[in-house]
Amino acid sequence: MPMPRWWGHVNKRVFNPRAVASGKWPVLIHVGRRSGATYRTPMDAHPVDGGYLFVPVYGPGADWVQNVLAAGSARLRIDGEELELTAPRLLGKTEALQALSDDTPRPPKLLHITQYLRMDRVSG
Fold first, then answer.
1. CB within 10 Å: which end of the chain, N or C, has fewer?
2. DSSP output for 64-97
3. For the chain, which domains are there?
């Protein structure tokens, strides 16, 4: 089971603003599918061939996942650079883990992550 949703609400209001302000974490910048507001969500962004892989620890129904899928794009601020990402899609565990390099840490098994979000980097 992914992380409990109540923990996501705590993260959203307490820890995420601090992580974004610190500048130490990659930040996914996405637009709300209902509100149209711009959101900044700190997360692990794992580089894969031609793009990035994200671990939805709150499951594929998490707001940020649904926002990115609805918009079809997002931006990623990482290492002081802002990248355009496109073509979001959910991948199964086997396909997602095959895309990661061998030295990339895997999510803890107790989270039972079964779907991952993959996005392609826009060239240029």
1. C
2. HHHHHHHHSEEEEEETTEEEEEEEEEEEEHHHHH
3. 20-121 (2.30.110.10)
**Rounded Cα–Cα distance for residues 79 and 107 (Å):** 22
Measured between alpha carbons, how far is residue 59 from residues 10, 62, 84 in Å?
A: 16, 6, 23
- 71 token code pair: 């918009």
Residue 4: which region, alpha, beta or left (left: phi > 0; alpha: psi -120 to 50)?
beta
Q: Dig out the tokens for 72 from the structure.
A: 């079809």
| Model-wide pTM > 0.90 | no
**The tokens of 88 are what?**
């979001």
